[in-house]
Amino acid sequence: MNATVRIFDGLVVFLAILAVAYTYLTGTSRTGIEWVGATSLVLSAGLCLLIGGYLRFVARRISTLPEDYEEAEISDGAGELGFFSPHSFWPFFVAASVMITGFGAAFWNWWVLLAGATALIITACALVFEYHWGREKH
């Protein structure tokens, strides 16, 4: 986990330096600061800071992982990684709901946006609670 935290810390520093340099260099041009690129770099650094902070928070609560050892073997990380649904069709419907919501937002059709948001809430709940309903109901 420490290696992953270090990667995101490096990304934060890199993106912050890049944002300052980009803002300065576009500010010295004849057209002035290009705000879309500067904003995207600052927000990207902020998002990397959030992810790195979360990983640092989680790393304190779990034991050391095989990735953190210099001399670890591949077999050290073997074992069960978790439960993954083998036959769920809900991710497809969640993606379709996101698409409908995006179309509603892009074309500013409030009724399509509302229908897509409603469908997104329903399909996300169905995805989360898929294995809590019992076998006969899904």
UniProtKB/TrEMBL annotation:
It is found in: Cell membrane. GO terms for molecular function: cytochrome-c oxidase activity. Pfam families: Cyt_c_ox_IV. Keywords: Cell membrane, Membrane, Translocase, Transmembrane, Transmembrane helix. It catalyses: 4 Fe(II)-[cytochrome c] + O2 + 8 H(+)(in) = 4 Fe(III)-[cytochrome c] + 2 H2O + 4 H(+)(out). It is an enzyme of class 7 (translocase). Its main location: membrane. GO terms for cellular component: plasma membrane. Its EC number is 7.1.1.9. It is a multi-pass membrane protein. Part of cytochrome c oxidase, its function is unknown. Belongs to the cytochrome c oxidase bacterial subunit CtaF family. This is Cytochrome c oxidase polypeptide 4. It comes from Dietzia natronolimnaea.
